[in-house]
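BUG: 3D viewer hangs when loading the predicted structure for this chain

Environment: internal workstation, default settings.
Expected: structure renders.
Actual: progress bar stalls at 90%.

Input used:
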Amino acid sequence: LFSIHILIIDYFTLRVDGVKMSCIQFFVCGLLCAVPMLLFETPDITQLLAAWKPVLYAGIMSSGVAYTLQIVGQKGMNPTVASLILSLEAVVSVLAGFVMLDQQLTMRETMGCAFMFCAIVLAQLPQKNIKNAEAVSA
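C-alpha cells produced before the viewer hung:
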C-alpha cells in the first residue's frame, strides 16, 4: 500500500498543488475515520483532552507535516528512489515516539532502526560501473 501511495503521489504532484493535495487528503482521511468512530465507539472529550500530546503528534506532525513534506519533496522525483528514501519514515517515526512520547525501544527495535538506516544510506551511494572501470584500466 505504501508503494501504491507513492505512485499516486508521483502521478498527481505534476498535476495539482502539493499542499492543496495534502490538505484534501488530510481532511478526507479525518472524515473517513470520524464516521466509524462515531458509529462504533463512544468518544469522551475528557479522554481526548487527556491524550492531547499523542493526538497532536499523530495528527499534526505525522499526518499533516510529514505527508505534506512527502508530497512537496517527491515532485519530479523517480518513484523508486522516493520509495527507498521514504521508507526511512518508519525509522523516524519510531525515534520520534522514543523522543516525544517517552516510548521505550527494545534492543531488537533499536537494531532494526540502525540496520534500516544503514541500508537506505548504502543503497543511495553511487555505484561503480564495472564496464567503465575495465575499459579505463585496459
